[in-house]
Structures are given as C-alpha cells and as structure tokens.
Specification:
- By secondary structure, the chain is an all-alpha fold.
- It is about 80% helix and about 0% strand.
- The protein has helices at about 1-75, 80-85, 95-115, 120-130, 135-145, 145-150, 155-175.
- It is elongated and about 105 Å long.
C-alpha cells in the first residue's frame, strides 16, 4: 500500500510537472506571439511615418519648383530682375541670356520630375536627349558649365550633370541623324 501511495504521488508529481511545463510553454509561446505582433505594429508605424515623410518631401519639392518657376518667369519677363541671377558671360546678348534662363527652367523642371520620382533616370535621359537637339539648349549647357562646377561633386545634381555631359558628348560624336538612338540610357 505504501508503494501504491508512493507511485501515485510520483505520478501526481509528474503530472503536475507536465502541467506546469505545458503552461510555461504556452505562456512563452503567447509572449513570443505578442512580441511578434508588437514588432509588426512598430514596423507598420515606421512605414507609415516613412510614407508621410516622403509625401511631405514631395509636396515641399513641388512647392519649391513652383517658386523657382515663378521667380524665373519674372526674370525672363523683366531684364532688370534677370540681372540679379544672370551669371552668364556679359558678352552674350541679353535676349540669348533670357533664352538661357528659360532653358535652365526646363532643365530644372526635368530634374525635379526625376527627383520627385515622376521620371526615372532613363526617362530623364530620354527627355534630355530630345532637348539637346536644340542648338540653343546646347549653348545654354555650355554657358552654364561654370555654374555646375560649383556643385558638390557627390550631389545628385552633379551626378545628373555628368550624365548629361556624357550624353552631349555622345550626341556630338554620333554619326547618325537618328538622335533618339544615340547614347546608352542609364538604368536604375
């Protein structure tokens, strides 16, 4: 009888240990699931914040581009205002300098479309390849070389400028009238 009690006690103790182990594992699994859910929620919130920040940045870029266009439009319309931002060689006739300001407005417009993610690098290249069919646009690019030289060499704008310099060189060296096939558009 004492042996039966001892065995029953051992079985009861083992069952209790098994019950405690199961409860512990269940509790640990629940804690892991809750932690995973909290981590997923945190990641979702971080993604929402990133998207909000991107939307704010795009809105600010759009506003900046509108402001730049308004300022350039005033300068193009009024030579006395153009003198404030005109860094081109003073030997260039005033009418041509105004055209350069307009060419710059187009270049900046395309650059901002790229920067805002509306155009990818390849699309930007294709648009610029078309613009550089204009001799006046090429003159503008040459006349603005000193301005581009002041850019931080590691900046995105300087990188695009180097890409355009390569495009202009390819167009100059091309021995075809089919300008739309000249050069190798970059891929992202």
């Amino acid at each position: 009888m004492a042996t039966q009690k001892y065995s029953a006690g051992r079985v009861g103790s083992a069952a209790l240990s098994l019950l405690l182990a199961t409860a512990t594992m269940t509790l640990a699994a629940r804690q892991r699931r809750l932690e995973a859910e909290r981590l997923a929620e945190r990641r979702l919130e971080e993604r929402r914040l990133e998207l909000d920040e991107l939307a704010i940045r795009r809105k600010a870029l759009a506003h900046q581009q509108r402001m730049q266009w308004e300022l350039l439009a005033r300068a193009i319309d009024d030579p006395s205002l153009a003198a404030v931002i005109d860094t081109y060689d003073k030997n260039i006739p005033a009418e041509k300098r105004r055209q350069f300001l307009y060419a710059n407005a187009w270049y900046v417009h395309l650059f901002h479309l790229y920067r805002a993610g509306i155009l990818d690098r390849e699309e930007l290249y294709r648009h610029l390849r078309e613009f550089f069919q204009s001799p006046l646009f090429r003159e503008y690019w040459e006349a603005s070389k000193a301005q581009r030289a002041t850019l931080n060499e590691s900046s995105e704008e300087a990188g695009i400028g180097r890409m355009v310099d390569g495009l202009v060189m390819d167009l100059d060296e091309a021995d075809t009238d089919e300008w739309w096939v000249v050069g190798n558009p970059p891929s992202e």
